[in-house]
TrEMBL record, chain A:
GO BP terms in the entry: cytochrome complex assembly
NCBIfam families reported for this sequence: dsbE (TIGR00385)
Source species of the chain: Salipiger abyssi
PANTHER family assigned: THIOL:DISULFIDE INTERCHANGE PROTEIN DSBE
Identification of the protein by name: Cytochrome c biogenesis protein CcmG, thiol:disulfide interchange protein DsbE
Length: 188, 666
């Protein structure tokens, strides 16, 4: 028995070592987080509106047969980077006519409502995902996360983390332009 | 010429390390005293030659010798002198050289100071230490030579990452490495004991000062790192559960467990194979940290340049050292007999609980850190594990630990009198509840867990002080008697009290700053007012300044409270043209009650072009300085214990069976 216990640390170390060896594969880039959803139809979900917020809820049906690609932003009032990102998204909506939908992730409706009335509401629709169930369907790894969905409901692009700072905004703008999601040309 | 001397010195150090890894241990097995004694001179020689190499590299940085590739890539002629010096360990190669230097310092330390250690044990320990030395010196020389030349030399260097140009961070790696690598000597002692097949109270006594020294330094290094993150990164957070933070935290957690279990081995001859295992695992986690930071295995904001070749090399070193020592452990540990029976309620049992919680906490952090890798390997899914996991899994464990920590020192060895202990702590427990209720009454509206945490932190603080007061008969005996007792109490005992109080103080800081932090992120133009935590803050504009190697935009914030001016804050946004990066220099008004913390950045809006509008981030962090105050007390407590003369006495005394002075569990 004692002998068995003494071997356990070695076994654990060897198993971990195997994972490390695998992880050193030079073609692997740990910072890249692709989505299994890209080029796939958006997942099935149907979310009610956030009580106290004056925009309708959001579901799979709202993503098909849209006039152009839409952006879905997963946010929450408790998420600090979301606050910084909010200003960037608002600017996209105001200046370039971006169609922005929101998924309010694991949030108290009253916190979300206060947050939106404080900062302004750039979202055309917001689904309240209190249980995080839709978040699972979308396979998000944290908030904020932003998806671009094509006219036919296909997921075109996924951005993990806040779209804040020059580099992130440039990346996102490129993706939006490629998806044809901007009504007006940038800079005009 | 100087860099070549450095390079040559490294090669000499490697040759000495090779000799030292064979001669003393052969001498120990054959009883050849000369061979055993050779370890002393080779250990001193190693530290000398690595020191020469380190000095040579430092000189190349100071004089900006850009023919050395490492200097050209990590320095710049306009950089302030302090950061030129700190640049020595700012890169992968340089920091690895520092790593090896500290490794040899500890080896030489045992060779010179360890006169109370039997010759054979010392010889074996130093040989094992030299094995690690051979591994890392060859790693340095074959894959990461800091003295590589570049031809033709560039006109100027490409600068150190500006985020690293900071006094706190200049000091952070040396302290952190001193702790990290310091555990190597404990590892060597453990492997030597396994080879010898013998471990006793004396062994634990030799190991303890080295463990303490490494632990103190690691504590200081981690605290300094979190302080740096707090004021330099501009987010106002002090802990992010980033993989690189985690890998220095794990050896700290396990090292803390080791510190406590070694006491049981020393005083009661129990927990032997467990202490050995902890000694091996603590250093293994240090090695794992080195591997993770330098191999690019996981993403982190502050990992070094990624190079798979290096990764494979370190993984090989890991396999040899960790695999080898754990194999040895699996083979030899089961035959080591434990001693010292104890009851379920005793000091031993208390320390067992402490060890189990700390080990479980370490396991949790390890799991959370590696989970993304494990999942990706098994399913191909890429995810990131963030603070919510760690907070949910780790914080409750620490709260339970705090609960036990308060009571533990009241327990006596072997068999404690539960009724007596309960009677002694009843009053303190009641007081802690009252304090918590008062806090709840004064500042309601915090999360429930925050009040639970406050209760436990206050309990730990009061119980620790109460135990100390009992020991010196504070208020129970005349003052002269109390003072005499305080003087006669072993320093290690005062050290334990100070360290435990320090942890309680740090806890209070962590709770205060995470549960009652207030924060505003606003767009401001000159004249904008913001109100936060009772302060009225007015942004009066930003001006452009020129630094030695950067250009800064400096915002000006007038802070008033109830109409009275309090202070003016100057947060800066610096851009370093050479390194092509920007840093946030937050402005902090620091008081013991809390910090008013401001940072600015370019706004996402279009007004950026006109330079008028800014994103202002302003936070109030209550009690945040208690975190670092507490860390300072932990380090001071460790230092006090380390200065205890009992640690330097050769042969350990057994616990007095009927003494009224209960021995400390520091």
């Amino acid at each position: 028995m004692k002998r068995l216990f003494a071997v356990v640390p070695l076994v654990v170390a060897v198993v971990l070592g195997g994972f490390f060896l695998w992880g050193l594969n030079p073609e692997r880039d740990p910072s890249e987080i692709p989505s299994v959803l890209i080029s796939q139809p958006a997942p099935e979900f149907d979310l009610p509106s956030v009580p106290g917020v004056d925009v309708p809820g959001l579901g799979r049906a709202d993503l098909t047969d849209t006039p152009g690609p839409v952006v879905i932003n997963v946010f929450a009032s408790w998420c600090v980077p979301c606050k910084a990102e909010h200003a960037v998204l608002t600017r996209f909506v105001e200046r370039y006519g971006l169609r922005l939908f929101g998924i309010n992730y694991k949030d108290e409706p009253k916190d979300a409502a206060t947050w939106l009335s404080d900062l302004g509401n750039p979202y055309a629709r917001i689904g309240s995902d209190r249980s995080g169930r839709a978040g699972i369907e979308w396979g998000i790894s944290g908030v904020p996360e932003t998806f671009i969905v094509g006219r036919d409901g296909t997921v075109l692009y996924r951005y993990v983390g806040p779209i804040v700072g020059e580099e992130a905004v440039a990346k996102f703008t490129t993706a939006l332009t490629q998806a044809g999601a901007l009504d007006r040309e940038l800079g005009s | 010429m100087i860099p070549e001397i450095g390079h040559f010195a490294l090669a000499l150090a490697l040759s000495l390390a090779v000799v030292q890894s064979v001669m003393p241990i052969l001498g120990a097995s054959r009883g050849n005293v000369r061979w055993m004694q050779s370890a002393r001179s080779s250990a001193i020689g190693q530290v000398f030659f690595v020191g020469v190499a380190f000095a040579a590299l430092m000189r190349s940085f100071v004089v900006s010798d850009f023919t050395v590739r490492n200097v050209a890539e990590n320095s710049h002629s306009l950089k302030p002198l302090l950061f030129k010096i700190a640049g020595t360990w700012g890169s992968h190669e340089g920091s690895l050289l520092l790593w090896v230097l500290i490794l040899t310092v500890f080896g030489a330390g045992v060779a010179v100071l360890g006169s109370n250690i039997p010759a054979a044990t010392k010889a074996r320990t130093l040989s094992v230490q030299a094995w690690i030395s051979v591994g890392f010196l060859s790693f340095l020389l074959f894959t990461s030579n800091p003295f590589d030349r570049v031809f033709p030399p560039p006109a100027d260097g490409s600068d150190l990452n500006p985020l690293l140009q900071d006094v706190g961070l200049a000091m952070h790696p040396p302290l952190l490495y001193f702790g990290y690598v310091g555990f190597s000597i404990v590892f060597s002692f453990a492997v030597a004991a396994l080879i010898e097949g013998r471990i006793d109270a004396a062994w634990a006594r030799w190991v303890r000062p080295w463990t303490l020294a490494a632990w103190m330094s690691l504590t200081a290094g981690i605290a300094l790192g979190s302080w740096w993150a707090y004021y330099e990164l501009g987010w106002g957070g002090w802990w992010f559960w980033d993989p690189v933070e985690n890998v220095s935290f794990m050896p700290w957690l396990l090292g803390t467990a080791l510190l406590h279990s070694a006491i049981v081995t020393e005083k009661r001859d129990a927990f032997k194979s467990w202490t050995i295992l902890l000694a091996i695992l603590t250093f293994s986690l240090s090695l794992l940290g080195t591997f993770i930071v330098r191999s690019g295995l996981l993403t982190s904001v502050h990992a070094f340049a990624v190079d798979p070749e290096r990764g494979i090399y370190i993984l090989g070193l890991l396999a040899l050292s960790i695999g080898g020592s754990l194999t040895l452990y699996a083979w030899r540990a089961p035959v080591m007999e434990g001693g010292g029976l104890f009851r379920p309620i005793s000091r031993e049992a208390g320390l067992l609980v402490n060890n189990l919680i700390l080990a479980a906490a370490t396991g949790t952090v390890l799991f959370g850190t590696l989970y993304p890798l494990l999942l990706e390997a098994l399913t191909g899914d890429k995810i990131s594990v963030g603070p919510p996991f760690f907070n949910a899994a780790f914080v409750p464990m620490m709260l339970v630990l705090g609960l036990f920590m308060g009571a533990g020192p009241f327990l006596s060895w072997k068999r404690a009198d539960l009724a007596g202990v309960l009677q002694r702590i009843r009053f303190v427990a009641g007081l802690a509840v009252l304090v918590t209720l008062a806090v709840w009454y004064l500042i309601s509206g915090g999360p429930f867990l925050a009040y639970v945490s406050i209760l436990i932190a206050v309990w730990l603080l009061l119980a620790t002080l109460r135990e100390w007061a009992l020991r010196i008969k504070f208020m129970e005996a005349p003052l002269s008697e109390t003072l005499r007792r305080a003087r006669n109490l072993p320093r290690a005992s005062h050290g334990m009290t100070l360290a435990h109080v320090g942890l309680a103080v740090a806890m209070i800081g962590m709770i205060g700053s995470s549960a009652w932090k207030s924060e505003e992120i606003v767009f401001v133009t000159p004249g904008t007012d913001v109100t936060i935590a009772g302060f009225d803050v007015t942004f009066t504009g930003a001006e452009r300044l020129r630094g030695p190697n950067y250009i800064a935009d400096r915002g000006r914030l007038e802070v008033r409270r109830d109409g009275e001016p309090v202070t003016t804050l100057y947060p800066e946004r610096r851009s370093y043209p050479v390194a092509q990066s920007t840093t946030t220099e937050s402005a902090i008004r620091s008081t013991l009650a809390g910090d008013l913390y401001a940072s600015i950045s370019e706004p996402a809006s279009e007004e950026a072009a006109s330079g008028e509008a800014w994103t202002l981030r302003i936070l109030y962090e209550p009690l945040v300085n208690f975190i670092w105050l507490g860390a300072l007390m932990l380090v001071a407590g460790g230092a006090l214990s380390l200065s205890d003369r009992r640690l330097r006495v050769g042969v350990p005394r057994r616990t007095r069976p009927h003494g009224d002075l209960r021995l400390p569990a520091e």
